[in-house]
Every structure is written in C-alpha cells, then in structure tokens.
Design brief:
Length: about 260
C-alpha cells in the first residue's frame, strides 16, 4: 500500500508525461501560415495575464482499479517555477514538487525519498520527455510556446471544423524522433478544450471544461487526464476550487536529511 501511494503521488505531481519512441512523421522544416498565426493570436488573447498564480484543486485519481481522492495546491511564477503540494483529503501532506526550466525536485513523504535531477536525466533514465514550458502551458490552459526548453516545433497545421478549430503540432527534441500534439480550440470562446499527445506507443489526452471568468479571462475549472500505453491506462480528474493571481507567494522546498536522495 505504501509503495502504491508513493507511485500515485509521483504520477499526480508529474501529470504531463509522454515518452520518446520512433518518429511519427518525417522531419520537416517549420511552417508558419496566416491560419496558424491568427488562431494562436485568438487563443493568446484569452490567456491569464499573471506574474504569480495559485491554483487549489481536488484530484480524483484512478490507478490500480481504485479511486484516490487528493487535494493539490499549485503555485506558479511564470516561466520560472512551478511548485506543487499534494495532500490526502484528511489534510495529511504526502508530497511536494518543484519544477524550474532546469531542475526537477520531488519529495515523497510516504516513502521518505527525494527525487532530484533535470529533464535530460528524466528522459534518459525513465523515458519521460518532459519540458517546463509544456507543463506550465497545460496547467494554465495555453498554447505551448517553448520559451525555455530544447524541444522544437517543426510543423504546424490548422483544420477548421463546425464547432472547433484544430491546431496540430509536430514536435522534435532535435533528434530523429517526433511527437504529435493536437489542440482542439472552441470557436465560441477561443479556448483550448482538449490536447492530445501521441507517439507510436503512448498517448495522453487532456480535456478542459467548466470555463469560468477569472480576472476577465475564461479559465477551466475541470480537467480530465487520461494516459494510455501498451501496458496500462490511467485516469485523473482535477476540479479547480480556487484561483488567485499576482499575490505574494513562497515556494518552500526543504531537503529533509533522513530522506533518501535519488537521481532521476
């Protein structure tokens, strides 16, 4: 049980993962069209304009055929740090994480472990291709701009449907492999309603709903996440209960001496 909760904590903290596999498509030169620019501009106009952001939420995670209710607090300093605190419903803290453009730190209070490293180590050792910009953009419902990371957008396409627009990215880390990212953007509100990450073996689907006005911008208050691989499927639902913007906030992360430090 102890190991199961610890694994759950890590998955919940790093809730945007996709793995490196063979190429989906051939590498192409970047393409920028008027359709791409116009759609991205419309989406950007709905983004929250913040320096500091705090999000409180309830999580219902479905792993190992059981549902696990959790509470999470997320603090973001734009393009600098994402701080996450995870508690059981009783209020008992079970984990904490800190993501910067260069480093990852995850504190597992259940198993008395601290995972430390960077995104390159995470990819080499765990096969998890994670980028700070992607993680931040998913949390705040924005198009990924790749401001600080090494992944590159190598192709873009727009498809116009009756009720939504579709923006497809082909993403490359600079080698021969690629990952497809598809954004579904509602025509009625120009908000990202769904994101799909896909490679040859794994997929990640994220759906946003219950958009409410926050500081005169629309922001989702419900997020459904589903991961699928050849070995397993896992689901998570996030109900956002509170959003604060541009308040002074701290990002504490204490290294506890008795905890075992593990390199990612």
């Amino acid at each position: 049980m102890k190991g199961r909760i610890g694994r759950l904590m890590i998955i919940a903290l790093v809730f945007m993962i996709f793995q490196s596999c063979k190429s989906l498509v051939q590498y192409t030169e970047p393409k920028t069209t008027d359709d791409n620019l116009a759609l991205i501009d419309m989406i950007d106009k709905q983004n929250l304009e913040f320096e500091n952001l705090e999000i409180k939420a309830k999580i219902m995670a479905d792993f190992v055929d059981r549902k696990h209710p959790l509470k999470v607090s997320i603090r973001i300093k734009r393009d600098s740090i994402i701080w996450v605190s995870l508690n059981l419903n009783t209020g008992l803290p079970i984990g904490k994480a800190s993501f910067t453009p260069d480093t990852i730190k995850i504190l597992d209070r259940v198993n008395d472990m601290i995972y430390m490293g960077n995104y390159e180590q995470l990819e080499k050792r765990k096969g998890i291709r994670l980028n700070y910009d992607i993680l931040q953009s998913i949390i705040v419902n924005e198009i990924w701009k790749n401001n600080t990371g090494s992944l590159k957008i190598v192709d873009k396409k727009v498809q116009k449907k009756e009720s939504y627009n579709s923006l497809f990215y082909v993403v490359s880390p600079g080698d021969s492999s690629t990952v497809g990212i598809t954004y579904r953007v509602g025509k009625h509100n120009n908000k990202i309603e769904a994101i799909n990450f896909l490679d040859n073996k794994n997929s990640l689907d994220i759906e946003y709903s219950q958009f409410e006005s926050i500081f005169q911008k629309l922001f989702p208050h419900f997020i459904a996440i589903a991961t699928k691989s050849a070995e397993k499927q896992e689901k998570m639902e996030i109900e956002i209960t509170k959003v604060n913007m541009d308040k002074n906030q701290r990002y504490p992360f204490k290294i506890i001496k008795r905890f075992e430090i593990i390199n990612l």
